[in-house]
Design brief:
The structure is a single chain. About 25% of the residues lie in helices and about 15% in strands. The protein is α+β, with helices and mostly antiparallel strands and about 300 residues long. The protein has a 4-stranded mixed beta sheet with strand order 4-3-7-6. Strands 1-5-2 form a 3-stranded mixed beta sheet, with no helix packed on it. A 3-stranded antiparallel beta sheet has the order 8-11-12, with no helix packed on it. A hairpin with a 2-residue loop joins strand 3 and strand 4. The longest helix is centred in the middle third of the chain and has 19 residues. It is elongated and about 90 Å long. InterPro entries: CxC2_KDZ-assoc (IPR041457), KDZ (IPR040521). This is CxC2-like cysteine cluster KDZ transposase-associated domain-containing protein. Pfam families: CxC2, KDZ.
Length: about 300
């Protein structure tokens, strides 16, 4: 906009634009309610924007978060939402996180710099809200791709490992191996053997949280990781079992697993069972976190 000396950038909000929700584009709402404090942030693929939004309060109006979802805006909260991310930016980061391995921190601050790269107009920090929306977005995508939305009971009826794509190379009774294969002679039965591999990564760390109520798991046991409470119960029952020390030369992964600093950490590594042929993760939650190293977890790995 021309300010009598030069052109300067201004927002559509400054020019008086209001985005009306709950109605078709161009239709007026006679019972509109502006966002409280007139603060509403939209995270989009081309920047982070502060806009003016009016919610609909007509008799047939839907709840606020549904009005946002109708225009493909994902709310950061279901109660009094004032920060949203467009579906396009969530899809973009979802793809970039796999293809370019970009972190959420780098991606978010790239969006902030595309909105203001001079620092003269500071962008409101919505990084924590963006992380929360991405976590929920991934969870919903997983449930959608697993077909859990078609269950009449709802997603609460999801069983352990049901959101995992089964390995097509592994034998599955009634699917890719004949019935009664276990009764075949040994010289034929070996064809239907299941080949598994077990490995662990001691570099993956997860910080401890204050409580599960403040940071709950969205799908505990539904995909690759084991269900938390059953896992803790399993460990408590086998806490006296000890892992045999490794005698391999220069192989200290097992021997030093329990000596690493663990203060403030909820998990010190991850162990997993995969298909030895395709390296696909196994279903029925064959992945577990390591709380005190591999020592207490090897019995679980061998019994899974």
């Amino acid at each position: 906009m021309w300010n009598s000396k030069f052109f300067e950038s201004v927002t559509l909000k400054t020019l008086g634009l209001h985005v009306q929700l709950g109605h078709t584009p161009g239709e007026r709402c006679y019972n509109a309610q502006p966002v409280s404090c007139d603060e509403f942030t939209v995270i989009d693929a081309h920047g982070i924007h502060d806009i003016a939004v009016d919610f609909c309060r007509c008799e047939t109006a839907q709840i606020r978060y549904k009005q946002l979802l109708r225009v493909w805006w994902f709310p950061a909260t279901t109660t009094d939402p004032r920060t949203v991310a467009t579906f396009s930016v969530l899809e973009l980061f979802h793809l970039l996180s796999f293809e370019s391995k970009v972190s959420a921190y780098e991606f978010y601050h790239s969006l902030a710099r595309s909105s203001d790269n001079t620092g003269t107009s500071p962008i409101k920090d919505r990084y924590s809200a963006f992380m929360r929306m991405m976590r929920e977005w991934h969870h919903i995508l997983q449930l959608m791709r697993a077909g859990r939305g078609h269950d009449p009971i709802g997603i609460e009826a999801t069983s352990d490992g049901e959101c995992v794509v089964p390995c097509p190379a592994c034998p599955h009774t009634g699917i890719n191996i004949p019935d009664g294969w276990e009764n075949l002679p040994p010289n034929i039965r070996w064809r239907y053997a299941l080949f598994l591999a077990i490995d662990a990564n001691f570099r993956l760390k997860r910080k401890a949280i204050s409580s599960d109520d403040h940071d709950p798991s969205l799908n505990s046991g539904w995909a690759y990781f084991v269900e938390e409470h059953a896992y803790k119960r399993f460990l408590s029952e086998r806490s006296i079992e000890r892992q045999e020390r490794s005698t391999c030369v220069s192989h200290n992964a097992v021997n030093t697993a329990d000596t690493k600093a663990s203060q403030g950490l909820a998990a010190m590594g991850v162990g997993s069972i995969v298909c030895a042929r395709s390296t696909l993760m196994m279903t029925h939650s064959k992945t577990m976190t390591m709380r005190i190293g591999l020592t207490a977890h090897t019995p679980l790995l061998s019994k899974s």
